[in-house]
Design goal:
With 790 residues, this protein is α+β, with helices and mostly antiparallel strands. It has 27 helices and 17 strands. The strands form four sheets. Strands 8, 11, 12, 13, 15, 16 and 17 form a seven-stranded mixed beta sheet that branches. It has a five-stranded mixed beta sheet with strand order 2-1-3-5-4. A hairpin with a 6-residue loop joins strand 4 and strand 5 (634-643). It is globular. The chain starts with a helix and ends with a strand.
């Protein structure tokens, strides 16, 4: 009987439990925001770094995904419900322009310097496990925390190389949503507020990164959400003041609501933990974010203590842990690898034995003296050449800095605007002290825009309470700031149409190429899928990569992901004795595996010097027209065989023709062949064929020349198959990049374009010494192939 009674009670309570569960589910749904999908990827990246130490492969992801989901759920559940919905005008006024800018260059593959130099490597390596493989010797020149690259890497694997940059667009939309919330207290009209968000976001260095694999914009929503929390903390709290009945707290009511107070204390503790996590995540994503995390933390701590609301000790402990958690896994790892938690930065302090005892500082950027540090946000208007590699600057940081100073005079009573100005000014000072590099100040561009919008609105709305002369001055000041902001945004728009970090063309400039490249969207997950069978076989031979050229390790890791990379290019890695010994150990581990290097054709000489300076030798050099996620985008690279220390390359005994001069007539003897000659092509189609050029003379042909004149190349022209009339005098050229002894061959890629009119044609291939003669004109035999153009 008791058992039956318990069963009846449980059954009666079931609806209550179901309603409670439904209530919690609805509460969680109301807490969900647009940026939470991207936030989940952030948690995945951080958790995956912890899992490095305990599991690999499928087991690692089996642990990572549920743990990341759990932490993400805790974060979202601890966040207060949003009381006001995002206005519809936001999606039209803000998101549509962002979509246009995103689509402007989208189908053209990203070839940004940093992306090819280390960001792709960071993503691939860190998603698979530790950043360094066994046998590596500093495979990346900038071994920074790969967490943001892991986020872009996940997106790239899911959506393909082109669409993988979608995370940057999502990050900027998320940033815009936070900006919209920050402007709510100032701008009540939803359309005017959305327009204000667009103006704040519309700055060139933010939008230069909207559709490439640079990671700076991924930090912006984290910092801005922390900014919103810093501005809001303590605003709803009112401590007893003792200044009369109208300001006194109703202590009897407070006593009746002790449970409410305990709940508020828990919420404040959760907020502090979330705030600390946002700062820690932003610093993990970008160490230079520390310049902005410091003023945000100061503001948050001051306002928390000023509200006279104390947090329990456990809340502080959890907050410190939340800040450190995103940073610890990689800091511990890189410390164990190098002896420095921020290698190679600040090595005068940490003294890693694998880098000179100096602080890494790029002298190209930033201020030159103490005065310029103080006023660098204004000085950089006149020193654009020291802002960044892209020498354009529309003035957003300068305008925001001046507006923040103006707030100290014209908005002294507006605590929220003053706080935002303080964050902007202190952040500007720390940024200019640290680097002054404009790409590291995207956060200042946004807070500066916020200050301009809020100050302009404040000056305009307070006119009614001023005298006639003061009213006029306030209207002029507000109008001036708005006009300057509009001019800055127009300049930014013009710059966006012309520049970005990869310097790709746009839909407006090359519409046909845009449509051709768009066919590869969602179909470009693997670089090897765009290679010919012969090229894949070449790269399959790679056992170890010797990194001898910039912008190559990203491509190398895409071509052969499990091959160790041994750096031979950067001299800083070879200054200290312990570092040189580490290099020797890496070479010893690579014995028995074939080593190759990859370089752009024009960098072959410098790559060869780097290889030889490390005691290695250059063997066979194979030019390749590398299809970079596209049949249209070709990279002229050379695959360099790297021979072990002490190996000797056979010396040629023939006479070598002098460089920068005409070959003797008897040297104009060549044999050409093509293994993959096309029998048919489409009209106007572009295709890459590999031409084998054999030296049939008794003279060593010289490779790369100092200028194009006297350079040995192969080329082609099209002839009509019926009357052998010339259709095109010249189609393509490929240079011989290395010396070619008698009897030896070089396989050269040649990108040919079929005639625009269908018909039967002869594809004539021949060697030429530029500025001297075609080989056929000296008695050599050209190669003729029949091709039908459809």
């Amino acid at each position: 009987m008791p058992h039956q009674g318990m069963s009846r009670m449980t059954a009666a309570d079931a609806p209550t439990h179901q309603s409670t569960l439904l209530h919690k589910t609805n509460a969680l749904r109301r807490r969900l925001e647009f940026g939470d999908a991207l936030l989940f990827l952030y948690f995945v990246a951080f958790v995956r770094q912890f899992i490095w130490y305990v599991a690999e492969g499928a087991a690692a992801w089996a642990l990572t995904l549920p743990l990341a989901l759990t932490l993400w759920f805790c974060y979202v559940a601890a966040r207060p419900e949003e009381k006001e919905e995002t206005p519809r005008s936001f999606w039209l006024i803000v998101v549509l322009p962002l979509l246009f800018v995103y689509a402007l260059r989208l189908p053209f593959p990203d070839l940004s310097f940093d992306v090819l130099n280390y960001r792709l490597l960071h993503a691939e390596r860190a998603l698979r496990g530790f950043l360094f493989l066994p046998g590596d010797f500093f495979p990346t020149p900038a071994p920074y925390n790969p967490a943001p690259d892991m986020v872009t890497g996940i997106s790239r694997h899911l959506l393909g190389y082109r669409m993988g940059t979608l995370v940057n667009l999502l990050a900027l939309v998320w940033t815009g949503l936070i900006l919209e919330k920050l402007l709510r207290p100032s701008l009540k009209d939803t359309r005017l507020r959305s327009l204000g968000v667009l103006f704040v976001l519309f700055t060139e260095h933010v939008l230069f990164e909207i559709n490439n694999y640079m990671i700076d914009v991924l930090t912006l929503p984290l910092l801005l959400e922390a900014t919103r929390m810093a501005l809001d903390v303590g605003e709803s709290d009112s401590a007893p003041t003792g200044d009369g009945e109208e300001h006194a707290r109703d202590y009897e009511e407070q006593a009746r609501d002790e449970s409410e107070g305990a709940r508020d204390e828990r919420e404040r503790g959760r907020d502090a933990v979330r705030f600390a996590f946002l700062l820690g995540a932003s610093v993990a994503f970008k160490l230079t974010s520390l310049a902005f995390a410091v003023p945000l933390a100061l503001v948050y701590a001051y306002k928390l203590f000023a509200s006279r609301r104390r947090l329990p000790l456990r809340a502080y402990l959890f907050a410190v842990s939340a800040f450190a958690a995103p940073l610890l896994p990689f800091c511990i790892y890189i410390y164990r690898q190098t002896g420095s938690p921020v290698y190679p930065l600040y090595n005068a302090v940490f003294k890693s034995p694998y880098w000179p005892y100096t602080n890494v500082l790029d002298p190209r950027w930033g201020s030159d003296n103490f005065f310029e540090i103080l006023f660098w946000p204004v000085v950089l208007l006149f020193r654009v050449e020291r802002t960044a590699e892209i020498l354009v600057y529309s003035g957003r940081i300068s305008l925001g800095f001046v507006a923040a100073l103006a707030c100290l005079v014209f908005a002294r009573t507006q605590r929220r605007i003053l706080t935002l100005s303080f964050i902007t000014l202190v952040g500007s000072l720390l940024w200019s002290t640290g680097s002054g590099y404009v790409r590291y100040a995207l956060y200042l561009e946004l807070t500066g825009g916020l200050v301009v919008v809020c100050l302009s609105h404040h000056l305009w709305t307070r006119r009614a309470s001023l005298s006639r002369s003061a009213r006029l001055l306030a209207a002029i000041a507000a109008s001036l700031f708005v006009c300057l902001l509009v001019v800055q945004c127009v300049l930014a728009g013009l710059y966006i149409l012309r520049y970005e970090w990869s310097m790709r063309p746009t839909l407006l400039g090359m519409p046909r190429a845009y449509l051709e490249e768009a066919k590869h969207l969602f179909r470009d997950r693997e670089l090897r899928d765009f290679l010919s069978t012969r090229e894949r076989e070449l790269f399959d031979e790679v056992g170890v990569w010797a990194e001898s050229s910039v912008k190559m390790n990203g491509i190398e890791v895409m071509l052969k992901k499990d091959a160790p990379i041994v750096a031979v290019r950067m001299g800083e890695f070879f200054i200290e004795q312990e570092s040189r010994e580490r290099f020797a150990r890496a070479l010893a581990e690579s014995r028995g595996r074939r080593m190759f290097s990859l370089a752009f054709g024009e960098e072959l000489a410098s790559a060869q010097r780097s290889i030889e300076e490390r005691g290695l030798r250059v063997g066979k050099v194979v030019p390749i027209a590398l299809s970079y996620y596209s049949s249209r985008t070709k990279l002229n690279v050379v695959l360099i065989e790297v021979l072990p220390e002490g190996a000797q390359v056979p010396e040629a005994v023939a006479q070598k023709a002098p460089r920068n001069s005409a070959l003797p007539d008897e040297a104009f003897r060549a044999q050409l062949s093509v293994a993959d000659a096309p029998a048919t092509m489409r009209a106007g189609e572009q295709s890459t064929i590999y031409v084998v050029l054999k030296n049939r003379s008794e003279t060593i042909w010289p490779g790369a020349q100092e200028s194009w004149k006297y350079q040995l190349t192969i080329g082609n022209r099209w002839l009509d198959a019926r009357d052998r009339a010339l259709v095109t005098d010249l189609d393509a050229r490929t240079a011989l990049v290395r010396d070619l002894p008698p009897g030896e061959e070089a396989e050269l890629p040649l990108s040919i374009s079929a005639p625009a009119k269908p018909g039967e044609y002869i594809l004539e291939l021949d060697a030429v010494q530029e500025g001297v003669a075609w080989f056929r004109d000296k008695g050599s035999q050209a190669l003729e192939l029949r091709v039908r153009v459809e």
